[in-house]
Amino acid sequence: MRSLLMLFMVIGLGCRSAPPARRTAAIDIALVHDSVPEQQTREQLRRLLEQFDVSPWLYTRTIQIDERAIPHSHPVLTLHTRHLAQDMQLLSTFVHEEMHWFLDERAEATQRAMAELRELYPTLPVGFPDGARDLESSYLHVLVNALEYAAMQRVAGRDTATRVLDFWVNDHYRALYRIVLKDEARIRELLVRHGLVPEGL
To answer: Tens of pLDDT along 152-195?
Structure first.
């Protein structure tokens, strides 16, 4: 009986999430201008990564913060300093860019999913503020935004995740985020069919 209890304890310890210190230590955060806002954003991001376990969705370990850049995923995941007073928006932006890496590593399945999206949504807006830079990117961002929403629900709860998307609906990719909120279940089914649901979601 005693040995059985010990076995359960070992299994339980092995199933725990990575300790916060290990999560942040595995990420290299560079500052492009080493300005005060960039330094503050780096500390903000480190704090958020200690508080919220997004480790299952870390596909790149190198990040940079650039106060003059629009956030993007490639070639280096880049965040800006806009959300110093908005923790959840910064975390959601970080997760969003990581999901680009996830889909990029599964390019063929992503293309098949986008083809199916075209049948569901024959037209999507292009260009700021409602769409992405071109039509293909708009279809891609429906998938990315859906994964972002799912991950934020998992780590911060549905209410918080929905508040963040309500913010984005009035900010950028507006029509694409509205689709995700309206058709969440349908888009998730599509992602599942194409094997595009990351671990933990």
So the answer is: 999 999 999 999 999 999 999 999 999 999 999 999 999 999 99
> What is the spatial distance between Cα 5 and Cα 10, in angstroms, rounded to a whole number?
9
Residue range(s) defining the domain that contains residue 161: 106-201
Indicate left, alpha or beta for 92 from its phi (over 0: left) and psi (-120 to 50: alpha): alpha
3-state secondary structure string, 141-169?
A: HHHHHHHHHHHHHHHHCHHHHHHHHHHHC
Q: Which two tokens stand for residue 139?
A: 């279809």
Q: Check residue 72 and report its DSSP letter.
A: B
Do 188 and 111 have their domain in common? yes
- pLDDT at residue 26, as a whole number: 77
- Total structural domains within the chain: 2
If asked whether residues 110 and 180 sit together in one domain, one would say: yes
Out of 105, 120, 138, pick the residue that ends a domain.
105
Amino acid at 181: L
Residues ≥6 apart with Cβ < 8 Å to 41 = 65, 67, 79, 80, 81, 83, 84, 90
- Examine the domain organization and report whether 75 and 110 are in the same domain: no
